């Protein structure tokens, strides 16, 4: 009985040892696995940190580039504003220069008259002599007072065909009062005829000034119809005398408003004394 018990104890001890070895082996395997996993996690964590760092650096670079782009855009916008302002100043200076040039051109023509209607060739090669003789007869001027035509010529351009409109005469008078005397006599006479040809006398303005003055054509017709005293003065200023006051207009639209009664006297127009 005692031997049986001893054998049983040995068998249990052997089983226990085997069981402990299995447990130890399992623990060792688990430790290896956990260690390997830990190593992998550490490596992964390092990779993640490196990736996050790389992403952060990329964001920093992107932020720097964005800041630089904003700075450049702001600079371009500022330069654009400055360029626009500079261009506006240049345009204003150019417009002022063009106006001065046009004014100088018209002042150089202040003694000139443009005469329209004479057929080509009637001057016989000497327009100055021809016009000195014919103008006093047409306008009823005192022949004892010389016209003093400094020079005379046809308007520049090729000679027109017989079926086309003849070129105007341009005459330059020595004295401004003579010019005014001729234009005044032409206005008084109205229709001037020479050998069945209607002859017209005009100031010799530049093309730009002619266009500016033509803008007042409609309002001048209205003033004539209403028998209101007016005058179109150099360069393109319409003066209307009405109800004892003289008003000056540089804008045909404002003159129309005045006549229509939509503006009061003395508000927008300039009053001249």
TrEMBL record:
Transmembrane region(s): none
Keywords: Coiled coil
Superkingdom field: Eukaryota
Coiled coil stretches, renumbered: 59-107
Basic and acidic residues bias (residue ranges): 1-13
Alphabetized InterPro entries for the sequence: Transposase_22 (IPR004244)
Region of interest: Disordered: 1-21
Keyword tRNA processing: no
UniProt cross-references to PANTHER family, sorted A to Z: L1 TRANSPOSABLE ELEMENT-RELATED
Protein name, per record: L1 transposable element RRM domain-containing protein
Organism, scientific name: Latimeria chalumnae (Coelacanth)
The organism's taxonomic lineage, starting at the top: Eukaryota, Metazoa, Chordata, Craniata, Vertebrata
């Amino acid at each position: 009985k005692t031997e049986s018990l001893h054998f049983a104890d040995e068998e249990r001890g052997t089983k226990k040892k085997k069981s402990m070895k299995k447990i130890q082996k399992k623990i060792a395997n688990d430790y290896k696995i956990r260690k390997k996993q830990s190593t992998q996690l550490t490596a992964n964590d390092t990779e993640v940190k490196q990736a996050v760092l790389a992403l952060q650096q990329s964001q920093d670079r992107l932020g720097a580039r964005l800041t630089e782009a904003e700075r450049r855009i702001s600079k371009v916008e500022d330069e654009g504003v400055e360029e626009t302002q500079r261009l506006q100043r240049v345009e204003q200076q150019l417009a002022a220069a063009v106006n001065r040039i046009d004014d100088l051109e018209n002042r150089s023509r202040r003694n000139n008259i443009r005469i329209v209607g004479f057929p080509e060739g009637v001057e016989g090669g000497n327009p100055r002599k021809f016009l000195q003789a014919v103008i006093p007869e047409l306008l009823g001027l005192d022949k004892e007072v010389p016209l003093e035509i400094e020079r005379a010529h046809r308007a520049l351009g090729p000679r027109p065909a017989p079926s086309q409109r003849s070129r105007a005469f341009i005459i330059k008078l020595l004295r401004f009062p003579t010019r005014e005397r001729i234009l005044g006599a032409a206005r008084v006479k109205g229709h001037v005829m020479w050998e069945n040809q209607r002859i017209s006398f005009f100031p010799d303005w530049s093309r730009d000034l002619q266009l500016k003055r033509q803008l007042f054509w409609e309002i001048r017709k209205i003033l004539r119809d209403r028998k209101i005293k007016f005058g179109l003065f150099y360069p393109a200023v319409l003066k209307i005398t009405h109800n004892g006051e003289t008003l000056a207009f540089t804008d045909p639209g404002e003159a129309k408003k005045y006549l229509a009664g939509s503006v009061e006297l003395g508000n927008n127009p300039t009053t001249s004394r």
